[in-house]
Structure formats: structure tokens, C-alpha cells
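Chain A, query sequence.
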Amino acid sequence: MMNLCFEHVPEMYGYFHLAMLVVISIAGFLVWRISRGYSEQGMIRGIGILGWIMVVLEVFKQWYCVTVVNHGVVSLWYLPWQLCSIAMYAASLLPFLGEQRQNTVLSFLATYSFMAAILALLYPQDMLRIQVLLTIHGFLYHGMMILESVLALRVLQKRMCIDIRGSMGLFLGCAGVAEILNLCAYGFFPALEQPNLFYISPYMPVSQPVFADIARVLGVFPEIVIYLGMIIFGNSLLSFVFDKTILGKSYYNSSHE
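Chain A, predicted structure.
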């Protein structure tokens, strides 16, 4: 069972990928519709439960990658501190936070986490593996990110606020930790397979379209700055759209005044 493999690696936008996109889209739509009548605390508890399920899935993934994929060899490539990983930590801690910090985390889940999940699902190059369980894990995990984002947006709609500055600060703080981990991994564990956390490691080749060309022309560090800046810009724009439409409020509230 643990060694169950596809006959071939599923193709991007092949039948398996498209089926997963349809299932996740339907699940997200249903949660958005059903959650309309839920209380804030009920949805926050739901996000927390999803977060802890993701923690369990991540523990399984770490075990599976070491024992099955790498045959007992530790790899730092799977270190759980990617942008998509932050949803797991943020969601699991959400019920234990005060309202102001909840607003920051909810705003992060509704924007940065939501955008990261969508992009990962649309371009799942690193999720489509020969191992059936690892591939299913990837789509299940990112599908749960979508559900968390939908519930987070519902709570923000009820509170009529979105914390753009706080969510940006949370993103930059997590990116800073990611870069420190990238540098430490290279400095202290050079013999192990290296991570590329947040895809900003100065030691790993840039794989994203367009940004690879930027790195080739301007260098790695300017590319990293531009890459982070574009993420912030895109999510700030998404926050603005949510603010003007779904949230029904025309300002950004970082203190829930």
C-alpha cells in the first residue's frame, strides 16, 4: 500500500489533475455557501480543526518521504516551511489567538494562503509524483488550504475588516525565517539535499517562469526582491478586491477599530 505507484507520473492538466481541480472547486463552493449561516467561533474552530488535520498529514508526509521515497535518507527539501506550509501553523493556532491577531491570521489565510494554494493547484509540478499517496497528499493538503481560506473570508466578512498590513508583516516575517533556514541548511548541512524554502534560496536555481529570466539577467538577489514584491503586490490587490466586494467595507482595518 505504501509503495503504491501510478503507472506513469500524472500529467499536468491530465485527467487526474483536472479531476482534482473539479473536486476541490466544488468543495470550496459548497463550503462558501454552507458557511453563510455559521457563527464566527464555529468557523474559527473549523479552521483550527483543518489546521490540526494538516499537521497530522504533514507528519505522515515527513515519515513517508524519509522511509519510502528516500529509503531512509534525510532530505531537507521537504522541510515544512514553504509559503503553503504556513497555513498549517496559522490555522492550528487560530482558535487560541485574541481577536486582533485572529484578524491578521484570517487575512493571511484569505489572501496569501489562498493565492499560494491556487497557484500550486494550477501549476502542480512538484505535487505530481509517481507515488500515489504522496500525490494525493499534495492535492488534499492544498484543497484544505482552499477550505481554510474560504472560511477565513467568511469570518472577515462578518467582522467587516481585513488586515493588509498585518498579513504582509506575517508574510515577510515567515519569508525571513525561510531565508535564514535556507542559509543555515547550506552552511551546516551541505551534504544533505538542500531546501528552497519560499523559493528564495540564493543557492538554488530559479525554476519559476519569468523569474528564472529575471535571475539570469539581474542576478539572484534582485530576483528574490522582485519575487517577494510581486507576491505582496498581488495579495494586496486581492485584499483590495475583497475589501471592495465581499467584505462590504472600503478601508483596511489593522486594529479592528
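The two ends are 53 Å apart (CA to CA). The chain has one domain: 15-244.
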